[in-house]
Structure formats: structure tokens, C-alpha cells
TrEMBL record:
<keyword id="KW-0029">Amino-acid transport</keyword>
<protein>
    <submittedName>
        <fullName>ABC transporter substrate-binding protein</fullName>
    </submittedName>
</protein>
<dbReference type="InterPro" id="IPR051010">
    <property type="entry name" value="BCAA_transport"/>
</dbReference>
<comment type="similarity">
    <text>Belongs to the leucine-binding protein family.</text>
</comment>
<feature type="signal peptide">
    <location>
        <begin position="1"/>
        <end position="35"/>
    </location>
</feature>
<dbReference type="GO" id="GO:0006865">
    <property type="term" value="P:amino acid transport"/>
</dbReference>
<dbReference type="Pfam" id="PF13458">
    <property type="entry name" value="Peripla_BP_6"/>
</dbReference>
<dbReference type="InterPro" id="IPR000709">
    <property type="entry name" value="Leu_Ile_Val-bd"/>
</dbReference>
<feature type="domain" description="Leucine-binding protein">
    <location>
        <begin position="37"/>
        <end position="383"/>
    </location>
</feature>
<dbReference type="InterPro" id="IPR028081">
    <property type="entry name" value="Leu-bd"/>
</dbReference>
<dbReference type="InterPro" id="IPR028082">
    <property type="entry name" value="Peripla_BP_I"/>
</dbReference>
<keyword id="KW-0813">Transport</keyword>
<keyword id="KW-0732">Signal</keyword>
């Protein structure tokens, strides 16, 4: 029997133009343009210390909404972003979440970059069955606070448990380095990352050789780096946000510590390059879902469109921008499948996407199930490296396979 659903027809998700016009025609909605907009909540740190990747989320979401609206929106209904700045502050974030869900009555929400801010607000979305798609925050607890079968929280970003597994596999299994130093800030993000790393090391019968904890805003970690050097560590993992990543790499350079430096994705932020400089960053490595790659046609097109929209000479965080863009399109697909913007219908639609969606970051092949609300698995990650002020693939074979369909492991 012919598939008459425009959202699922064919092997890949149809373009917004195809969806908007084919679906409108098939349902006979000639007057849909007069309908109320689909209201999309957007929440993130658009000012303050996390603004570099927060605004990348914002620009990515804005670009997706702009392009969707240019071709008719959802059955003639425009998408409307309702934006709130959480300033990377948990209390501000909670008030913003309550405002979006309870007062603005948004249909669904794209949001959160900081794990501590997200954790403070999750109950608002869960209690009101308002679907939350997280494009940025990677704290493991964000999608494990509620059992997936009952949860309205989904994520298009790799969780820290997966990042830790990837990093320890790279350091211990692949490179055979066993004396690991962990530098973790005192936030929920740093604590969660530390726990995930220690858990992965313990699975291999290892413990961290040296652990340093520090508050946000620390001016120097040179003393801690010298202590790690005295402990004869052969690898460093820094679990913290952008400004403190810059402090860590500069302090490592000051201490003359030659051990290779690894980190999750905040090391890739533009603000880290600006604060630390290319010399301090040279050769340091980080987990990535996407690397600036103009050989990939879809990615190159996105980069050009994003640059025109944002007016930025250099993206604050490519991962944040691309994951946010993909998050909006995945939600649009869910709306088409569900033919509804109600939370229960969207949840069911996301959990049952059978056909692939070709996004900017990757091709999403059944990204979610009723028991799994994470879009990424370890095999979908890359090791990036800073080289002369640019992020490249560490392994040449990764550059070759970057355009392949990376199916999620289950």
C-alpha cells in the first residue's frame, strides 16, 4: 500500500517545502495560512559567560525556523520562536521555563546548555507534559531523572556518560595510557563528568592518578598542573566549561606539563581560542559530533547559510548551532507524523520515527525509542584536535567517514 503520509514517505525526511505543500494539499487546508502559529519555546544562555555557545543554539534554531517559514511552515502555520534568556543561572532558567510553559503556552521547547540550569527546570516540562528537546546540555542526569518511558525530555547531544566512555576508550584502550589526571569544576556539570570518568576507569581496574576540583572563575590552575606533573600523569582530562578550559590549557603550558590534554566539547568553543590563544591549544583534543568540513555538501551549505544569518565571522560553537538546527527539524518531523502539537502525541511520534532524517550533524536513523531518548551513541562521535587555530579530525579515517550514515548503536 502506498504511504500517504508526507512526513514519512521515502527513505529520507522530505524537505520543509515538500512537507508544507504536499501535506497541505493532501489535507485540503487552503485556509491554513490564517491559523495560529506553532509556538516554539527557546531557552538558553544568551548573555553571560555561556553566551558563546548559547547564541550558537539561538542562531541555529532561528535559521531552521526562518527556512521552514519561507516554504510555508507546518500546513501553512508559521513557526514562532518564543525566546527566553536563562543567563546560565538555575533560578533564572526555572522562571523562564515556567513562563514558557505556563504563561506563553508554547507547543514544545528547544532548550538548555548548562546542566545545572536544565536540572532545575525539568519538573516544569514533565509535570505539564510539554515536550523538551535538549540540543546542548550533556549532563547524564538530564535524560535519566525520569524513566524514558514516562519522560517528555529528549536530547540531540551526546550525554556525558557517552563522552566519558569515548574519552577513556581513547586514552586507556587505544593509547594504553593509565595514569590519568582529572580536572573538574565544582558545578553539576563538572561533578557529573568526574563521576562518569571515574566509573569508566573503574571498569578497567583503574583510578584517577590525580584529581583537581575548582570553582568557576578560577584565575589559574598552574599549581594543580604542577602537582599533576609531579604525580607523573600521562594524560589529562578537563571537565569544565569554556572560560575554565582556557585557564586549564594556559596553566598546563605554564607548568610545562607535556601529557596529552583531552576534554569534552567545551574545549572547541571560539571563546576558548580567543582566551587561550592557538599556541596553548595546539594539539589538545576534544569530543565532537561534527567538525567544520566543507567537503560534506549538506554541512557546507549549512555553514554558509548560518554565517549569513548570524553575521558571525566564526561560529561560537558549531556543535551547538548544528544540533539546535537539527533539533528544530526533528520536532517539525514529529509534528507532521503526529499531526498534532500535543505533548503525548509528539512523544509518541519521536519514539517511533521509522524513516531516516538527513540532518546537518548526521543522518538520524530511528534516533529515539520509548526506552531511549538519546539521539547519539559512542560510534557517532569523533576526536577533534586544535591545529593552528582550527579544529580538525584527529584521525584521517574519521574525515573520510564523516559523510557516512552513522547508525545509532543499541
Amino acid at each position: 500500500m502506498m504511504d500517504r503520509n508526507p512526513a514519512t514517505r521515502g527513505g529520507f525526511f522530505a524537505s520543509p517545502r515538500t512537507l508544507a505543500f504536499v501535506a497541505a494539499a493532501s489535507l485540503g487546508l487552503a485556509t491554513a495560512a490564517a491559523a495560529q502559529p506553532v509556538r516554539v519555546g527557546l531557552i538558553g544562555p544568551f548573555t553571560g559567560g555561556s553566551a558563546d555557545f548559547g547564541n550558537s543554539v539561538r542562531y541555529g534554531a532561528e535559521l531552521a525556523v526562518k527556512e521552514i517559514n519561507e516554504v510555508g511552515g507546518y500546513l501553512g502555520r508559521k513557526l514562532e520562536l518564543v525566546v527566553r534568556d536563562d543567563k546560565a543561572d538555575p533560578e533564572t532558567g526555572l522562571k523562564a521555563a515556567q513562563d514558557l510553559v505556563l504563561r506563553e503556552k508554547v507547543d514544545f521547547t528547544i532548550g538548555f546548555c548548562n546542566t545545572g540550569v536544565a536540572m532545575k527546570s525539568l519538573d516544569v516540562f514533565q509535570a505539564n507534559r510539554n515536550l523538551l528537546m535538549v540540543p546542548c546540555s550533556q549532563g547524564t542526569a538530564v535524560t535519566t531523572k525520569f524513566p524514558a518511558a514516562q519522560s517528555y525530555v529528549f536530547r540531540v547531544a551526546p550525554p556525558d556518560a557517552t563522552n566519558a566512555k569515548f574519552l577513556v576508550s581513547e586514552i586507556v584502550d587505544r593509547r594504553k595510557l593509565r595514569s590519568v589526571a582529572i580536572f573538574a569544576d565544582e558545578t553539576g556539570y563538572g561533578s557529573g563528568g568526574l563521576n562518569d570518568l571515574q566509573s569508566e576507569l573503574a571498569k578497567r581496574g583503574l583510578a584517577a592518578k590525580y584529581v583537581a576540583r575548582f570553582p568557576l572563575g578560577v584565575a589559574s590552575l598552574a599549581a594543580q598542573m604542577r602537582a599533576a606533573k609531579e604525580a607523573r600523569v600521562d594524560a589529562i582530562v578537563a571537565y569544565t566549561v569554556g572560560p575554565e578550559q582556557a585557564v586549564a590549557v594556559k596553566s598546563r603550558q605554564e607548568a610545562g606539563l607535556a601529557a596529552p590534554f583531552f576534554a569534552p566539547w567545551p574545549l572547541s568553543f571560539r571563546s576558548v581560542l580567543e582566551a587561550a590563544g592557538p599556541a596553548a591549544l595546539e594539539g589538545t583534543m576534544m569530543v565532537q559530533t561534527i567538525v567544520h568540513d566543507t567537503l560534506n555538501e549538506r554541512r557546507a551549505s549549512f555553514l554558509a547559510r548560518y554565517s549569513r544569518h548570524a553575521g558571525e565571522p566564526r561560529i561560537g560553537s558549531l556543535m551547538s548551532a548544528a544540533q539546535s538546527y537539527d533539533a528544530v527539524h526533528l520536532m517539525l518531523r514529529a509534528v507532521f507524523i503526529a499531526r498534532s502539537t500535543q505533548g503525548d502525541a509528539l512523544k509518541k511520534a519521536l519514539e517511533s520515527m521509522e524513516n531516516p532524517y538527513q540532518g546537518v550533524v548526521t543522518t538520524y536513523v530511528r534516533p529515539f525509542t520509548p526506552d531511549d531518548h538519546e539521539a547519539f551513541s559512542e560510534n557517532m562521535l569523533f576526536l577533534g584536535v586544535w591545529k593552528k587555530g582550527q579544529i580538525e579530525y584527529f584521525y584521517p579515517e574519521d574525515a573520510k567517514r564523516a559523510g557516512y550514515v552513522r547508525r545509532k548503536e543499541r
